[in-house]
Design goal:
The complex is a heterodimer of chains A (115) and B (115). Chain A is mainly beta. Chain A is built from no helices and 11 strands. In chain A, strands 2, 4, 5, 9, 10 and 11 form a 6-stranded mixed β-sheet that branches. Chain A is globular, with a radius of gyration of 14 Å. The N and C termini of chain A lie far apart (41 Å). With 115 residues, chain B is mainly β. Helix content of chain B is 0%, strand content 50%. Chain B contains no helices and 11 strands. The chains are: A mainly beta (115), B mainly beta (115). Chains A and B meet through strand 5, strand 9 and strand 10 of A and strand 4, strand 5, strand 9 and strand 10 of B.
Chain lengths: 115, 115
């Protein structure tokens, strides 16, 4: 069975500092991986996704993530945090069992950005 | 930009009452999903729907739950007799294609509180 683990339920950084949100996956087949962001009172918005075309994936708002098979990781990074990045971030894998492509989510990480 | 919408944004109901959560997926999408997030827990898959029938459902999706697409635009989730443990945020999602790499687009959610 596939699963996703996000290390750290809360991450706090200063404005301008590096953002690193960790995601590790478990999958017996090549995974399709997604990062979503949820701003207060809004739905889940896709930041980026890995579909095997390239291991370094660039997304919206300056975020990127690198797929590392050897480490079973797909960590999300941003070089310089902005106050507007404060939100909850979800890593997810598309389940390849069955044919519906349901998403299996990690626990989520709340990012706090301090001035 | 097309988006998934959900109504109501908040609903409070008494235990044992029926609730219907409504979603309008993106118009040319064919695959529809419901997920829920109990406070402090992961986003969990409930059910997927394609070609006017359920394509997959989770263990959570028991006989108290049902889905339908009554008019070609709305996608509803009904809980027949709500329980306290049904209190959660319910997200609707849709995607256009069948592939596991296809992006699911999420609505803003309905926060359900069962008293």
């Amino acid at each position: 069975a596939q699963s996703v683990t996000q290390l750290g339920s809360h991450v706090s950084v200063s404005e301008g500092a590096l953002v690193l949100l960790r995601c590790n996956y478990s999958s017996s087949v090549p995974p399709y991986l997604f990062w979503y962001v949820q701003y207060p009172n809004q739905g889940l918005q896709l930041l980026l996704k890995y579909t095997s075309a390239a291991t370094l994936v660039k997304g919206i708002n300056g975020f990127e993530a690198e797929f590392k098979k050897s480490e079973t990781s797909f960590h999300l990074t941003k070089p310089s945090a902005h106050m507007s990045d404060a939100a909850e971030y979800f890593c997810a894998v598309s389940a390849t069992s069955g044919n519906t492509g349901k998403l299996i989510f990690g626990q989520g990480t709340t990012l706090q950005v301090k001035p | 930009e097309p988006e998934v919408t959900q109504t109501p944004s908040h609903q409070v109901t008494q235990m044992g009452q029926e609730v219907i959560l409504r979603c309008v997926p993106i118009s040319n999408h064919l695959y529809f999903y419901w997920y829920r997030q109990i406070l402090g827990q992961k986003v969990e898959f409930l059910v997927s729907f394609y070609n006017n029938e359920i394509s997959e459902k989770s263990e959570i999706f028991d006989d108290q739950f049902s889905v339908e697409r009554p008019d070609g635009s709305n996608f509803t989730l009904k809980i027949r007799s709500t329980k306290l443990e049904d209190s959660a945020m319910y997200f609707c999602a849709s995607k256009g294609g069948a592939g596991w790499q296809e992006t699911q687009y999420f609505g803003p959610g309905t926060r359900l509180l069962v008293l």
